[in-house]
Amino acid sequence: MSANTISNPSVPNTIDRMPQHIARYYIDYGSHIAFPKELAYSEFPAGLYLPDRSDEGNFVLTRIDPFRRQALLEMHRNNRIRDEAEQDAQAAGNAEFDSFIEQIELEDLAFMEEMERITQQSSRTPANPVHSRMSDKHSVTATALSSLNRLERGDYLSEGYFPLEKYNPGLKRVSEAISEFLQNRRIFVENRLGYRRSVLLFGEPGTGKSRFIDNLCKQLIQMHKAVVIRIDSRFQLELVVDKGLVLLETHLADRLKIFIIEELAEMSSYRGNSSLLNFLDNAILRNNVIYLMTTNNPDRVPKNLTDRPSRIDVLEEAGRENLPGFQEAWYKHVTGQELPESEKHHAWYSAKMTPAYLKELFLLSRMKGIQPHEAYGYLEHRIKLVKNNFAEKRELGFG
């Protein structure tokens, strides 16, 4: 069967004009990937995806591109602005409110038309200013998105990344475990063990777990053409278990597949974690699979997950203990300057702070024009406030 042909003659002729690309086992519609039963052959694009469901109820993978991600962030920011404007318009009367609604609908239409035009450009096309009749905030957004076209797919996963795994023992061991797994495929295949590996990385918020996972996925995309699938909700987890496993095994059996679950404690709390157990124990997707999971709350993760290799093979903590030289390297990464030698004799230098707290310390010192030991007082005040007022509050998300 030749490439870019349709094997089922009953498929309408219009189908080959609608997608951007028809390839092996899938149709690429640009914003998502669909999995029909009979199609021709080509290579599935490496990259980062979210599991989703089409209007017809079929399992699809939604592509995450740098400019699409930025567009979503911009939409979230604009939503907050609109909420406030909507309240003001409603208070002013119905006529003004109707006018406001009509205005934002026109802006939305122009914005989405511009996004569609931008996202059709190649990710390697040099950036050009975007000229349009959209509102100023949308024009600025479109220009910013156009500049992101220079990025390779997945580059934003580690944009501005600091190699924390060089200094954090737990992250370093996870990195080594993944490398060992990829280098020893023969052991798994020859013994028919199922070529899969699962990792749970735990630790308090701000220790670099999520950024480390993002950068690791970027490397796997670039070096192994991995298909990375983020599972961020119970809906997505159930969708993969109910409809995705068979399709992914059928169509991507020979490709490295990475599944990311951030905040395993939250995911395992649903429905007695039966969907999660079905996902980790499934007998369908057993080869060329890596599960990367994180949690800030290891005490909330059920023991029947952590105390059973094959569900979780590698268990490591991203703690506050870092190897010598970390503060100096982190200071230079954040500020672009060398850490003054005199700062090593102050209390903050020996305090066990997370990378997130150290970053805030360094930024405060630069913005206020003072040394880190002088800015440490502001950070101690914050830590005291958190301890006295928020320590027992329920945590959200994955930190």
TrEMBL record:
Segments forming domain AAA+ ATPase: 195-322
A GO MF label: ATP binding
Source superkingdom: Bacteria
Pfam families: AAA
Assigned protein family: Belongs to the AAA ATPase family. BCS1 subfamily.
Protein name listed in UniProt: ATPase family associated with various cellular activities (AAA)
Species: Cyclonatronum proteinivorum
